[in-house]
Design a protein that fits this description.
This protein is of the alpha+beta class. It has three helices and three strands, in the order H-H-H-E-E-E. The protein is 40% helix and 18% strand. It has a three-stranded antiparallel β-sheet with strand order 1-2-3, covered by helices on one side. It is elongated.
């Protein structure tokens, strides 16, 4: 007896629908989502580096005005927003090229906003900003070899170190003057 029973037609339709749904999910997970993640990461990296460049320019202006760097990011942002010296630099023109001498770079949104410099675009954590501290000790000794006076001078803020906590780069170095104002991605 050669009797063959075939499956009902609706079982085949259900299986084809399941295969189509799984194919769409696979395409989304394997192709579309990684492209979106790469695009978001590229945007965050570019935005963070622009912000770090602007923080560096603010630190340079702070040092020009006050003679040393600062490790207080909120005070630096307030300085950029309200100080007349920074305003005069932002509104100045280069006499040779007659182009604006504004040291601040527009962000990816197209506009420079000092408030955006406090936090990273990816995790919204504060940037890590540190300054160096060096102590110079001067000892005075009399003819008998006894110490008569010890003077110590503390120098703050000759160098700075700025780091993105998300890992998109650093600016400056606490120990090497050659890396002062140098970005890790340049």
């Amino acid at each position: 007896m050669n009797s063959k029973k075939s499956d009902p037609w609706y079982v085949h339709v259900i299986l084809y629908v399941i295969i189509a749904i799984l194919t769409v999910i696979l395409i989304k997970v394997a192709i579309i989502d990684p492209k979106e993640a790469v695009a978001i990461d590229r945007h965050n990296r570019t935005e963070s580096r622009l912000r770090m460049d602007n923080i560096k320019e603010g630190l340079i202006l702070w040092q020009k005005k006050k003679g040393q760097f600062t490790d207080n990011l909120p005070k630096l942002i307030q300085f950029i927003e309200t100080d007349p010296f920074v305003d005069s630099v932002k509104n100045a023109f280069d006499s040779l090229t007659m182009k604006p001498a504004n040291p601040f770079i527009p962000l990816t949104s197209g506009e420079f906003t000092p408030e955006s410099l406090l936090y990273t675009p990816k995790s919204h954590l504060e940037y890590i900003l540190q300054i160096d501290t060096s102590v110079i000790v001067d000892t005075t000794v009399n003819r008998r070899g006894q110490v008569t006076k010890v003077d110590s001078t503390v120098h703050l803020g000759n160098r700075y170190y700025l780091e993105d906590p998300d890992g998109y780069g650093t600016v400056g170095d606490l120990h090497d003057d050659a890396k002062k104002n140098t970005s890790s991605w340049q």
